[in-house]
From TrEMBL:
UniProt xrefs under SUPFAM superfamilies: Nudix
Keyword Hydrolase attributed: yes
CDD domains, alphabetized: NUDIX_UGPPase_Nudt14
Name this polypeptide is given: Uridine diphosphate glucose pyrophosphatase NUDT14
Species name: Parnassius mnemosyne
Family matches, as PROSITE patterns: NUDIX (PS51462)
């Protein structure tokens, strides 16, 4: 994932992923315009492994993050010096997510992404639609639909890691590690949607699993309840 070379910037040809255009309008009698990017709507899924009480993340190289680490001066050079700018600068930790580029329901797209990226076979009934929100409101405003699913080790039927030329590493974090992540002073190498997902999980679900830890501990300590972080 971190073997990066031959990095250079070029003008955008016709792209199936992003379409830049100018949006013109008159508001309160004043003529205005806004420069926009048309992108696909998407899904994102919180995957929580209840066998081992860990959250499943995907780690991947994100060119957009990498590019924004390069100084404006160095962006002008014909090739980017990868010894000065190693790939690690662009590696993000995210929830499993994918664009809606097929004529399928959001539930089916979410199910596919969990299998392709994380390796878990989840029944459609195991995917709970939580909410949807607008991402990149400055220039995109695309809709992301957000799901929660619980998986077990037995549901891990494939390796994960993405399809075609995707290079994705599956990473697991415990509840205390998630808490540490959201309390970090940053910069956190994750999009706001991922941080929202973590806060949603901590607020709505984490207690259920913390209680299991406490109970476990109480058993071990012969009835003495100990809060385990
Ligand atoms: N701009 C681009 N240039 C070149 N190739 C591209 C491309 N966009 C997509 N692709 C190709 O299409 C594949 C799409 O991957 P996914 O469907 O998993 O979406 P991704 O995880 O990138 O974004 C998901 O996760 C992020 C983070 O949450 C959300 O912002 C996003 O809306 C959501 O779909 C990429 O692996 C790549 O091959
Ligand atoms: Mg993805």
């Amino acid at each position: 994932m971190e073997d990066l070379k031959d990095v250079f910037i070029s003008p955008l040809p016709d792209s199936p992923y992003v379409k830049p255009f100018r949006f013109n309008y008159t508001q309160n009698g004043k003529q205005k315009s806004w420069d926009l990017l048309e992108v696909h709507d998407s899904v994102a899924i919180i995957v929580f492994n209840i066998t081992r009480k860990v959250m499943v993340f995907v780690k991947q190289f994100r060119p957009a993050i990498y590019y924004n680490c390069i100084s404006p001066e160095d962006r002008k050079s014909t090739t980017i010096d990868t010894s000065k700018y190693p790939a690690s600068l662009g590696i993000a930790l995210e929830m499993c997510a994918g664009i809606i580029d097929k004529d399928k329901s959001v539930e089916h797209i979410a199910q596919e992404e969990v299998l392709e990226e994380c390796g878990y076979s989840v029944p459609l009934s195991g995917l709970h639609r939580i909410t949807s929100y607008r991402s990149g409101v400055g220039v995109q405003g695309a809709l992301q639909t957000f799901f929660y699913c619980e998986v077990t080790d037995a549901m891990k039927t494939e390796q994960g890691g993405g399809v075609d030329d995707e290079l994705i590493e599956v990473v697991e974090k415990t509840i205390p590690e998630i808490e540490e992540m959201v309390n970090s002073p940053g910069p956190i190498p994750s999009p706001p949607s991922c941080l929202f997902a973590l806060m949603w999980f901590l607020y709505n679900k984490a207690d259920k699993f913390r209680k299991t830890y406490e109970h476990h501990c109480a058993e071990c300590k012969k009835g003495k309840m100990v809060f385990v972080k």
